[in-house]
Automatic annotation (TrEMBL), chains A, B:
Belongs to the isocitrate and isopropylmalate dehydrogenases family. It comes from Halonotius roseus. Pfam families: Iso_dh (PF00180). SUPFAM superfamilies: Isocitrate/Isopropylmalate dehydrogenase-like (SSF53659). This is NAD-dependent isocitrate dehydrogenase.
């Protein structure tokens, strides 16, 4: 079966790590067709729009999308793209790799972040000179959908439900109740942790947690916290999963300080592509790509962010050589 | 000048650390009058109300309040109490003390958390079987008031403004604009950091930051994250400051696992009392109390949470002996 992959480089090092990753994917000789789309600061400067309609449509119509990064326009690009692929969950693994400097090298977490609502639903109003409001939305249906996915994802293990229902009683209360109910129905164990307590506890001992199911903003902040514990955003992949469609992106941004020099680390994007392969049913190839990255991490070469002096091409070639 | 201090032990180790702290305050021979009020789980079980009106009134009418902790009813007690004292800012220092096991021993931060609005303003509605909303409120006036306080607090230094205005454009945009404008007017330097990026960066290197000014929930979560970096909530004090009134509380909770045994560490509450003394104008005594705690931390005795075997009374007496 042939798959169409939308490829959106975006800005900065997106223009380096995405072509590198496409090379890795091409070396697998699968029946993948890559179609390029444009988005980001440069497109906005040229056309007035950070995300042209045709890029939105491309993502919506492809089997999967690989996205790099956008600069100032990040929110204008990534939030509509997540919607274009109808993604209801953002999967964010945060795993410390051996040999990579980490505050908490024992960290191995996966965040399943609700990807459609919470404060991201975006109804804001200026009600007076002095006052603005934002309407935070939580539905049982979106919470249940996330929970169904989580139950399948954990494959017999339990998960933690992280929320702030002691303050956001109706909204996060609804979220918590729906998630726990679905988990109970599936015989999946859950433990509940308040969002603030989670922030303390994960620093003290990340091995207390495995899979974390949480609302949108909590997932944003707490997964970035976990990124801090594993040594930074540099290696972290992510997936936005919808029913018929999905988008994969490194967690890092455009890295303007090193963009254009050909020295960016492609690994977070390559690991995102491994998630893409798995999503399309190429689970054996997905494992091979992940293992290849781990081998290169262990044996080198390494880019500057990991203390090496290899460039993007050398690391990309080393990954391909390991496949 | 005589000051009336409302003293609310609450539940669990609140009933141990508050009396210990009152002993420390009494040993200073200042003109302080202590008046006890009740709140928390036990009061709710007995009377149906976690925060009786007379305790609310006591906090509102006293010059300052010292609060311990509440269990299940924490939100029902602390949120109205913060309102009773009209507090517009929650000051949360997170400093790693020498000799205390910390993930990031170089951490020395102070969070100035907006204390009246954001998601805490609490307008929630169940709009249908499926959907609940929460109205997040941000006003220019509350943001400016916090910023005015921050400018005075940092005393010539700059501060970081942490927000999520790339998603919450009108509400956090209003917050950011107001805070930065006030800082500019005072010639105070600011740098802006997105809330998620802050979570990563503070783990990687907490020395990048000093004073952080942020909305209510951001302050809740990010100060608890910082607590994780300094080794836990055990030593952290906090202050809720209003124009004519204030409330001081340890960041830790009721610690049900050790409550009733007389072995709780009183230091977070004693440090909260040091903030209280400073607030009432006893800055010399405030410094003495803080130094006494630091000396006992360095020389012992220590409670079990810090690897020692002293009980609450011994540590309290050691602090008093250092004054
Ligand atoms: C760019 C921004 C809108 C986005 C988010 O908040 O989701 C980013 O922080 C992320 O987590 O991918
Ligand atoms: C108990 C809870 C309502 C409270 C808060 O969210 O403010 C607590 O977490 C805190 O930070 O003091």
């Amino acid at each position: 079966m042939s798959h169409t992959i939308a490829v959106i480089e975006g800005d900065g090092i997106g223009q380096e790590v995405i072509p590198a990753t496409v090379k890795v994917l091409e070396s697998l000789d699968l029946d993948l067709e890559f179609v390029e789309g444009e988005a980001g600061d440069a497109v906005k400067a040229a056309t007035g729009e950070a995300l042209p309609q045709e890029t939105y449509d491309l993502a919506a119509e492809s089997d999967a999308t690989l996205f790099g990064a956008a600069g100032e326009t990040a929110a204008d690009v990534i939030l509509p793209l997540r919607e274009a692929v109808d993604s209801f969950v953002n999967i964010r693994p945060a795993k410390a790799y051996p040999g990579v400097d980490a505050v908490r090298p024992e960290t191995d977490l996966v965040f399943l972040r609700e990807n459609t609502e919470g404060v991201y639903s975006g109804h804001e109003d200026d009600l007076s000179e002095d006052l603005s409001t934002l309407t935070r939305v939580v539905t049982t249906s979106a919470s249940e959908k996330l929970a169904e996915f989580a139950c399948e994802y954990v494959d017999g293990e339990g998960f933690s439900v992280v929320h702030k229902a002691n303050v956001m009683r109706k909204t996060d209360g609804r979220f918590r109740d729906a998630v726990v109910r679905v988990a109970d129905d599936h015989g999946v164990e859950t433990d509940e942790v308040l969002m603030d307590a989670f922030a303390t506890r994960v620093c003290l001992d990340p091995t207390q947690f495995d899979t974390i199911v949480c609302p949108n903003l909590a997932g944003d902040v707490l997964s970035d916290l976990a990124a801090g514990l594993v040594g930074g955003l540099g290696l972290l992949p992510s997936a936005n999963i919808g029913d018929d469609n999905a988008l994969f992106e490194p967690v890092h941004g455009t890295a303007p300080d090193i963009a254009g020099q050909g020295v960016a680390n492609p690994m977070a994007t390559v690991l995102s592509a491994a998630m893409l392969l798995n999503h399309l049913g190429y689970s054996e190839e997905s494992d091979r790509v992940e293992t290849a990255v781990e081998t290169v991490l262990a044996e080198g070469p390494r880019t500057a962010d990991l203390g090496g002096d290899a460039d993007t091409d050398e690391v990309t070639q080393a990954i391909i050589d390991q496949l």
